[in-house]
Structures are given as structure tokens and as C-alpha cells.
Amino acid sequence: MMVALMGTSGRAEAQRQSAQDQRKQQTAEIPVCAKPLGSISVFEPEDSVNWWSGQQLPAPSRLIKVFVNKSRCFTLVDRGAGMAAAQSERSLAAAGDLRGGSNIGKGQIKAADYVMIPDLISQNSNAGGSAISGLIGGLVGGNAGSMIGGLNFKKKTADVVLTVTDVRSSEQVAMAEGSAKKTDIGWGASGRLFTGSEFGAAGAGAYANTEIGQVVTLAYLQAYTDLIAQLGGLPDNASAANATQALRVTKPARLLANANGSGAAVRSLDPDMLLYPTGNKEQLMWEVEDELGNRGWVNSTLTELAK
How far apart, in whole angstroms, are the C-alpha atoms of residue 184 and residue 27? Predict the structure, then answer.
């Protein structure tokens, strides 16, 4: 009987370990979407400690961009070095220095529907004071610098978070946490996560080539995988799903009771007043509300989109 119980216990433990191993192996594979969920830009958090330079790692935004490109879950819009270079070309176009027919001008840049920010889960007691002083010169050294936020460099563990914010409404539409440790690295290798060229091509090769980089990669990948699962209900058209952009009155006008202009005016409209479209339109007439809640119709030629 004792032998039988030990055998049953051993099988149960093996099943539990097998389930855990399967979860880790799935986490080490970048999810792939059938169609993009929208366009997205990736930024670093404003108050982040620059921990990555002390580990000879690029900014984590480069790592997240690898996930985005590989997964095809978003259309990635560049708001970094690529955008700066594009703006330089646009400046040349605005000055008339480019050849005719270059087709570079206003109204061509694709808007980001969402912003994704990679961060550490928490700031522990070692993230300030002497720990930050250890970052001087881009180096993390000594016991004080062994932990920064959700990272423990000595034990090689990482606890991270990804957040996604709707650009138009500023609503935080999703947040996901991820964690990894040194012993999880084998799953990344078995899932061929670190064997491709995507990391090097994106300037994030150090995340695939160093131990702490692989741990951080697995943590962010777990968060990214959970994030994609949360975002399955996003609208097909983020622009259309949000409130319509406000209008600014450019010339003296009237807020009319109906689209055909009959009946008394609801009120007069002065230049620079803001109006909020309801979405109803009849040729040049748009139904709007003013800031006091008055609703009526205005000729759209007397307004412009508020910037």
C-alpha cells in the first residue's frame, strides 16, 4: 500500500510539473495574430531608471518592437530615430529643396491608435539612494545596485509590466505583468525564441545573447502574450470607435434647429468656440453640441477641425 501511494504521488507530481513546463514553453513563443489590432508606438516610461545601459542592453522598447513586428498584432509606427529622419526630409520638402513629385507633405503620417509602455512592476527600496548612484557612468555595481525595481541582477530574475493606452481617449485599455528567472531560459531556447535573427536586426541582439537579457525577454514576452489575449475585444477601427474630433468655429455662425435651416436658431456662434460633432451629417450640415450641451446643426464650411 505504501508503495502504491508513493507511486500515485509521484505521478501526480509529474503531471503538475508537466503542466507547468507546457505553460512555460507556450510563453516562450511569440503570439501571432490573424490581423492587426491597430497601429501602435512604443515608448519608455518617463520616470524609468536607465537600468539597461548598465547591463550593455538596448532600451526595452527595441525588444517590444521585435514582439510587435513578429506577432503582426499591431502596425508599428516609428516615433523614434526613424521619425526624426522622416521629419528632416519633410523639412527639406517644406523649404522647397526636394525634387518635384517627391510627394512628401502634410497629412501623410499614420496616427498611432495606441501607445505601449514597458516598465518594471515595482520600485523596491534598493531602487533609490545608493542604488541609483550605482548607475553613474552607466554601470550597476556593488550590492546596492544588484536590484532595481523588478529586476534582481544577482539572482537573475525579472518582474515587468506592459501597459497599452488609447491615444484618443487616454484610457488605459490593458495591463499585463510578466516574470521570469534564470531557470526559465531553457524554455526560451527550446521554443527557438533566441535562435532567429529578429533581435539582431532590430538592434536588440544583447537580449538574446546575455543571460540577464534572456530573462528580461521571457518576462516581457509573458506579459506581451497575456496582453494580446486581453486586447482581443478591441474595435476593428479605433479611430471610428472613438469620439469625433472637436470643431472650432472660424467665422460668425448660427446653431440651427435642423439641417434645412428652417425655424429659429438655437444660438449664435462666435469664432474660436468649440463644437462636438454627434456623428450625424446631411451634406454640408453637421449636427453638433456646444460646451453647454445645446444641440443643433451648423454649416461645416464655417468650422475647422480643432488641433
Answer: 10
pTM for the whole structure: 0.69
Supply the DSSP string of 67-82, one letter for each residue. Answer: HHHHHTSSEE---SHH
Residue type, 253: A
243-305 to CATH, choices 3.40.605.10, 2.30.180.10, 2.30.30.40, 3.50.50.60: 2.30.30.40
CATH 2.30.30.40-classified regions of the chain:
243-305
The confidence score (pLDDT) of residue 64 equals 92
Closest CA to 67 of 116, 23, 20: 116
Give CA angle at 62 (219, 210), nearest 5°: 55
**Cα Rg for the chain, rounded, in angstroms?**
27
Q: Which three cell numbers stand for residue 7?
A: 507511486
For residue 263, how many other CB atoms are within 10 A of its CB? 9
Each residue's pLDDT tens digit, 166-211: 998 888 989 999 998 888 877 655 456 776 667 777 777 888 888 8
Buried b (16+ CB within 10 A) or exposed e, 106-145: eeeeeebbbbbbbbbbebbebbeeebbebbeeeebeeeeb
pLDDT 10s digits, 204-259:
788 888 888 889 999 999 999 999 988 876 666 766 656 678 899 999 999 998 98
